[in-house]
Every structure is written in structure tokens, then in C-alpha cells.
Design a protein that fits this description.
By secondary structure, the protein is of the alpha+beta class. It is built from 3 helices and 5 strands, in the order H-E-E-E-E-E-H-H. It has one domain. The longest helix has 19 residues, at 79-97.
Length: 112
């Protein structure tokens, strides 16, 4: 179960991401994104394990890069936590890929 203080942090990160104020970057992993802040950084990742289970994680790091918290879950472990973290991951991924902006531009192109 995700601690309340981390839920609050996750909600604030989601707001900042949706508003475009949080600028996420991609890591060297296929589906992982990270956000660097003055006092530390956070990451989120999603993948399928060797058994085909969908896994999602959310982690925080101090300025030295040491992990200070991490949540990793699948649908089978905690559906509530999984849905929350997967929803957050999807927001981050969509913003990073500029999905809404790209779709809007393509729609305008089709109207010509």
C-alpha cells in the first residue's frame, strides 16, 4: 500500500505533469521516464515480466541518486496501487510523447 505522503506527492506530480510544468526525460530503459528536481529525482517505469505480468513502478531518489522510496506492483499484487501507478505512468508517457499535441496537429492536417 502506498503511504499517504507518497500519494500526495504522486498527485502533485500528476498535476504538474498535466499542466506541462514537469518536464520528464527518458532513461536508457525502454519504458522508463525520470524527472530531475533540485532536491532529488523521481522515476516511473512499466514492463511485462517473464511470466507476462504487467509491472509498474514509481521511485524517488535523493540528490546523490540513492533510492529513498520505491513502489513496484502488478495487478495481481494490488489492483488499487497498480491502477494508480499505471495511470500516473500513462500521464507521464503521454506528456513525454506529446500525444495530445500530435493528435491535434494531425486532425488539423486532415481538415485541409
Amino acid at each position: 500500500m502506498i503511504e499517504e505522503k507518497h500519494l500526495d506527492f504522486l498527485k502533485k506530480l500528476t498535476e504538474k505533469t498535466v499542466s506541462g510544468k514537469a518536464k520528464w526525460e527518458k532513461t536508457n530503459r525502454e519504458n522508463e521516464f525520470f524527472l530531475k528536481l533540485p532536491s532529488g529525482s523521481v522515476s516511473t517505469d512499466s514492463w511485462d515480466d517473464e511470466d507476462g505480468r504487467s509491472i509498474v513502478d514509481f521511485a524517488g531518489y535523493n540528490r546523490s541518486g540513492e533510492e529513498i522510496f520505491k513502489y513496484k506492483t502488478s495487478k495481481m499484487e494490488s489492483l488499487t496501487d497498480y491502477n494508480m501507478l499505471k495511470g500516473f505512468y500513462n500521464v507521464v508517457r503521454s506528456k513525454y510523447l506529446k500525444a495530445d499535441e500530435t493528435l491535434s496537429k494531425m486532425m488539423k492536417e486532415l481538415e485541409k
